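Customer escalation, tier 2.

The customer says the design service returned an amino acid string that "doesn't look like it belongs to this structure." They asked us to rerun it and document both sides in this ticket. The original structure tokens are below, unchanged.
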């Protein structure tokens, strides 16, 4: 399958963006002082659900980013 240049760059950018956003989110989740993520020092269901969402987003962001990177590399070889 051939990806166009804009699609390849979009997928690569989306993968990078996903990592930046979710790394920031996880850092904030771990530092949570509102009582949602930790209760008496123990993780709550809120913490585990959001950590699972972050992990899934890391995996999907990586997969999408790798597809975009492979598309960009293939286009450069063709040029």
């Amino acid at each position: 399958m051939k990806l166009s240049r804009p699609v390849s760059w979009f997928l690569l950018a989306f993968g990078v963006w996903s990592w930046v956003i979710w790394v920031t989110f996880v850092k904030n989740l771990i530092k949570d002082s509102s009582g949602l993520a930790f209760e008496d020092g123990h993780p709550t269901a809120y913490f585990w659900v959001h950590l699972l969402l972050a992990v899934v987003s890391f995996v999907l962001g990586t997969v999408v980013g790798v597809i975009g990177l492979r598309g960009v590399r293939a286009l450069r070889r063709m040029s």
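Tier 2 assessment: The sequence is consistent with the input. The helical segments are 5-30, 45-78. Strands lie at 38-39, 42-43. Sent an explanation to the customer and offered a walkthrough call.
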